[in-house]
Specification:
This protein is α+β, with helices and mostly antiparallel strands and 305 residues long. The protein is built from four helices and 18 strands. Strands 6, 7, 8, 9, 10, 11 and 14 form a seven-stranded mixed β-sheet that branches.
């Protein structure tokens, strides 16, 4: 429409589409009551492929014929994926989520903080083993050894204080928190959860905590302390979706993921994710070498009034 925008009355700060003028735009008063258009940047169209393949074979098929193995962002998409089967299948099928046990990273991500190779410093003690399928965070014991653990466990923790006026580089907080709770505390009070990027830094932390023990039933125990090392499961298309729909504990089945802890011969070997149509699409971790049908997705774009 000609003459637009004109900010009539110095009060037109919002934009509308005029369908009477071939979709031309006009500026309008933001308090005007009008119909409106919502936009969905993208949504996934799912495709069920009823051919048994390993997870890697399924990934290759989806990338060649669609976009990728299925990524799921929310419960609405989860229901859409289930409806793709339309009751024709009642078993398990691959989606794109997988567990990369080598994807560890530090909470403090500033590249200037690390010298070459320091991001990769580790001091594992017969770890990591992801023992029950959900050990995505790392604690250090009183001997300085590292273990992977569920991020929901409550441990004391070590903060890093990188401020110019800091009186000490590391601060041990003797308060039990989850890993996320510890991270939030350190970022609010100091800089971040501690990165341990070389042996010198490990020894510096140990010099602070070495003499802190607690007494329990006749024995002395050292504190377990969260550090900043952690990881997430990954999607095949490298999506950042944090949505999960794991199968909870039932009288008939163990809670998921369990990394094969309850399956003879598969303990520590279940790194890929399947939906169980038997359990309304809830997720289980499985051996990536199992042969299962699978879900692919393709992207659709559009607007909805």
């Amino acid at each position: 429409m000609t003459g637009q925008p004109d900010n009539a009355g110095s009060s037109e700060y919002c934009t509308a589409v005029s369908f009477g003028d071939s979709g031309s735009w006009t500026d309008e008063n933001c308090n005007t009551v009008l119909s409106f258009i919502c936009y969905s940047a993208s949504f996934h169209q799912y495709h069920f492929v009823n051919e048994s393949k390993t997870w890697t074979e399924a990934q290759r098929y989806c990338r060649e014929n669609y976009t990728d193995l299925a990524t799921i962002d929310n419960m609405e998409e989860m229901n859409s994926l289930i409806n793709t089967v339309n009751g024709s299948y009642n078993g398990s099928a691959w989606i794109g989520l997988y567990d990369d046990v080598n994807s560890w990273r530090w909470s403090l991500e500033n590249n200037n903080f690390y010298q070459e190779g320091e991001r990769d410093f580790r001091n594992w003690y017969h770890e990591p083993n992801n023992n029950v399928g959900n050990e995505l965070c790392v604690y250090m014991d009183h001997n300085g050894n590292w273990y992977d653990s569920s991020c929901e466990n409550y441990y004391t923790f070590v903060c890093y204080d990188g401020r110019e006026n800091a009186s000490q580089k590391y601060v041990v907080v003797y308060e039990g928190r989850t890993w996320t709770g510890a991270q939030s505390y350190c970022r609010e009070k100091y800089t971040d959860l501690a990165s341990v990027s070389n042996e010198t830094e490990r020894q510096q932390i140990m010099s602070i905590v070495h003499y802190y023990y607690y007494y329990y039933y006749g024995y002395f125990y050292g504190y377990n302390m969260w550090i900043g090392l952690h990881r997430n499961r990954l999607w095949s298309d490298q999506s950042s979706s944090s949505f999960t729909y794991w199968l909870p504990y039932t009288p008939w089945d163990v809670s998921q993921p369990d990394n094969g802890a309850n399956v003879q011969g598969q303990q520590g070997a279940q790194h890929c994710t399947a939906v169980s149509l038997k359990y309304f699409g809830q997720w289980t971790d499985e051996s990536c070498f199992a042969n299962l049908p699978f879900f692919c997705y393709s992207d659709e774009y559009g607007m909805f009034v």
